[in-house]
Amino acid sequence: MKHPLAALALYLAAPMAGPGLAEAQTPFRIVEYATGLERPWGGAFLPDGRLLVTERPGRLRLVGPDGAVSAPLTGVPPVEARGQGGMLDVALAPDFATAREIYLCHAMLVQGGALTRLTRARLAMDGASLEGAAPILDAAPPQEQGRNHYGCRIAFGPDGAMYLATGERQVTKPRAQRLDDLGGKVLRLARNGASLADNPHAGRPGVRAEVFTHGHRNPQGLAFNPWTGSLWQAEFGARGGDEVNVLRPGRNYGWPLVTHGVDYDGSRIGEGVSRPDLEAPIHVWTPSVSPSGIAFYTGDAFPAWRGSLFVAALNPPGLLRLTTRGDRVTGEERLLGDRGRLRTVLQGPDGFLYILTDEGRGRILQLRP
Ligand SMILES: [Ca+2]
C-alpha cells in the first residue's frame, strides 16, 4: 500500500460553484496522499509527521509522510461496528511527546446495548501497537435499539481539559435534554475521564457532572477557535437544520425543542426554530450538508485561508470554508464537490489540509498551494 508522491496524479482544482455560491478564490492542488483505508473517520498528526488514522470497522493505522499506510496497529480495543458505529475519533494527549498517550472515541456494545465509549491507551515507541488500552468513560445509558448518532469527536482545550461530543442515539425519548444522561452532550473531562471540579453542573444532585453543554443531536465537529479560545461545534440536524454552535458552559443548545430542520417525513419537530432560553446556532444549513469533522486553519501555506473554519461535509459532499470574525461566521465557500463523501479535515504540520473520504476504499486527499 505504498504510494510514493511522485507516482500520484496531481489535479488542478476546478471546484464547481452551485447557484449563489462563491467561486473558489484561492488556487490549490489536490494530491491523493494515501489510499486503501476503509472508511477513515478521524486522525491526528504525531510530532514526527506521521498521521494516526482510524478506520470505522475497528482499526488504527499510521500514514507516513510519503503516504505509505502501515499494517493495522495491534492492541486496539474492540468496537461495535454496525450502523454509524465503529472506531471513530482519535486524539493525542497535549503532552503526547513524552506521555505517548492517545484517546479513542468509538462505539461499544455493553450490557444493555450500544454506547459511545472513550478509551485511553499509549502508542508503543515503534508505532506498531497500542499498550494498556482501557475504557475511561461510557456515555451511559447504553441503548438496545439503533446503531446511529454516536457523535464521537474529541478536542483538547487551551484550559487543558478534554472535550468529548456525544450523539443522542436517534431515539424518540429526548436524551439530549436529560442532564442525568450522557447522550447528546459535549462533556468536559480530566485525562482519566472524570468530571472536572469547575464544570458548570458540578455538585448538582441528579446531574452528570461531566456535562459541559446539552441539547445536541449528533455532533461530529469539535474545534477550539485559536483566536478567541471558544469551543466551536458542528452537528447534524434532521432534514435541514445542520448547525455550527459556539459552546458556553452549562448552556442548552435546544435539540429537540428547537431546530431549523424538520423530520425526515416532513413533520415539525419541537416548538419552532428558537426560544429565548435556548442557545441559537451561529450558522445553519438548510438544506442539509451533513457536517462531520471541522478544523480552523492557522497555517502559512494558504495565507488567504487563515481564520477560516473548514467543514467536511458528507451529503452533498464537499469541503466548506467558513470565513469568521471573532465568534461569528461571515461567509461560506464550497469546495471539492466532486470528491466523494468527506468525513473530516485536518491541518497538517506543513500547513496543508488533509481530508479523509468516507468510502469503502477511502483516501486521504491533500490540498496544497
Ligand atoms: Ca441547536
TrEMBL record:
UniProt KW Signal keyword: yes
Membrane-spanning segments: none
GO molecular-function terms, A-Z: oxidoreductase activity
KW Signal (keyword) present: yes
Glucose/Sorbosone dehydrogenase domain location: 37-365
The enzyme's E.C. designation: 1.1.5.-
The entry's keywords: Oxidoreductase, Signal
SUPFAM superfamilies registered for this protein in UniProt: Soluble quinoprotein glucose dehydrogenase
One Pfam family matching this protein: GSDH
Cited InterPro entries: 6-blade_b-propeller_TolB-like (IPR011042), Glc/Sorbosone_DH (IPR012938), Quinoprot_gluc/sorb_DH_b-prop (IPR011041)
Cleavable signal peptide: 1-24
Enzyme class: oxidoreductase
Superkingdom, taxonomy of origin: Bacteria
The name this protein goes by in its record: PQQ-dependent sugar dehydrogenase
Species for this entry: Paeniroseomonas aquatica
